[in-house]
């Protein structure tokens, strides 16, 4: 079958252009730079992409990286405030249950984030760990902001915790966009590092009072979670690198020609 050769884009720089919904059957994009282009729902039957540069553009990498940094700073600020707020609390204080809650949620969020970063995104274990990490990260944010807005009202903080967890569950399970995935990985990574910081501070407190066994146990936990944090932060880089650059979602690619390297990459995602 022959297609029209009226659309000739060969060897052109087309980065970040939108061809969404356009009829481009038989178009020649050979050797063109189509990184960051949007071909969603386009008609590309018989189109030639041999030698074309396909993937993330520098602008997309910059936007995703800036988003990851912003999420890390936001979550990092919240968790730092929460951790500093529980320092010096004793078991007899009224806020002790919330101290234990912080330990538990941070520990679980960090562990889930580390598991998610080592499992394939399509695996059941990877999806479950990523969802748990997202829910717990959202719960911590909701707890902090609801508590702060109501002058540390415990009931409001717990309600905010539930709302934050539900919202992040929705984002994790229903929104599959690349920015959402980078944001979830970033929040989970910071939670993992925060858990390492909390365990380290606890270890120092025990060691300063000569409680060597407890201090050593928390010290080992801090080292373990520091390793988890390293693994989790590497997942952010991987999420950005695997993000969809040139988008062909919903496009008609019947008889379209691609380099074998792109087809292999597509099959792995």
What does this structure look like?
- The protein has seven helices and no strands.
- It has 269 residues and is mostly helical.
- The protein folds into two domains: 1-57 and 246-269, 3 Solenoid (Pectate Lyase C-like); 58-241, no CATH class.
- α1 runs parallel beside α5 (178-208), α2 packs antiparallel against α3 and α3 packs antiparallel against α4 (154-174).
- It is elongated.
Which stretches are poorly predicted, pLDDT < 50 over at least 5 residues?
A: none
Shape: elongated
Biggest β-sheet: count, sense, barrel? none
Q: Kindly estimate the percentage of residues that lie in beta strands according to DSSP.
A: under 5%
Number of domains: 2
Rg value = 24 Å
| Class computed from helices, strands and strand pairing | mainly alpha
Number of alpha- plus pi-helical segments: 7
Order of helices and strands: HHHHHHH
DSSP strand tally: 0
Q: Percentage of helical residues? A: 55-70%
N- to C-terminal distance: 30 Å
What is the averaged pLDDT score? Answer: 87
């Amino acid at each position: 079958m022959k297609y029209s050769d009226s659309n000739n884009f060969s060897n052109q720089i087309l980065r970040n252009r939108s061809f969404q919904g356009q009829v481009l059957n038989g178009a020649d994009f050979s050797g063109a730079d189509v990184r960051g282009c949007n071909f969603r729902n386009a008609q590309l039957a018989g189109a030639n992409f041999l030698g074309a540069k396909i993937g993330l553009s520098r602008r997309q990498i910059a936007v995703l990286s800036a988003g990851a940094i912003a999420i890390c700073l936001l979550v990092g600020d919240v968790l730092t405030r929460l951790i500093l707020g529980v320092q010096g609390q004793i078991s007899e204080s009224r806020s002790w249950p919330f101290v234990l809650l912080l330990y538990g949620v941070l520990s679980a969020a960090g562990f889930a984030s580390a598991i998610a970063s080592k499992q394939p995104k399509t695996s059941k274990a990877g999806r479950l760990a990523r969802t748990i990490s997202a829910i717990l990260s959202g719960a911590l944010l909701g707890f902090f902001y609801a508590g702060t807005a109501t002058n540390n009202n415990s009931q409001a903080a717990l309600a905010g915790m539930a709302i934050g967890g539900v919202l992040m569950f929705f984002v994790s399970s229903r929104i599959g966009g690349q920015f959402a995935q980078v944001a979830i990985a970033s929040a989970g990574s910071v939670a993992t590092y925060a858990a390492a910081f909390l365990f380290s501070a606890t270890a120092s407190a025990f060691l300063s009072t000569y409680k060597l066994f407890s201090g050593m146990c928390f010290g080992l936990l801090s080292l373990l979670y520091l390793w988890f944090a390293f693994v989790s932060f590497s997942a952010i880089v991987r999420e950005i690198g695997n993000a969809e650059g040139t988008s062909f979602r919903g496009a008609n690619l019947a008889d379209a020609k691609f380099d074998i390297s792109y087809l292999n990459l597509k099959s792995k995602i």
